[in-house]
Design goal:
Length: about 80
């Protein structure tokens, strides 16, 4: 779990940010383990192997940058309004 430790270490100074980073990381791992094989299997049955890997190669960065943009636009609760 050294990667989880790195996420928690780089999350910032506050315990709240550290908890958010840890929870997001662990949730992503668990959701990926559950949904990934199901979506991959359905996609292979419907489209074949090549399009499935192409979609995964494009989908993973899309999800990452969407989440990153959401985090950047969100105003922390600790920050002053204005």
């Amino acid at each position: 779990m050294s990667s989880a430790a790195l996420v928690m270490d780089s999350a910032g100074a506050g315990d709240r940010q550290r908890g958010l980073a840890s929870g997001t990381y662990m949730s992503g791992l668990d959701i990926g383990k559950i949904i990934g094989p199901v979506v991959g299997g359905v996609s292979v049955d419907a489209l074949g192997y090549e399009p499935t890997f192409l979609l995964a190669g494009l989908g993973i960065p899309l999800v990452f940058f969407t989440y990153y943009g959401w985090l950047k636009r969100r105003r922390p609760r600790d920050a002053p309004a204005g």
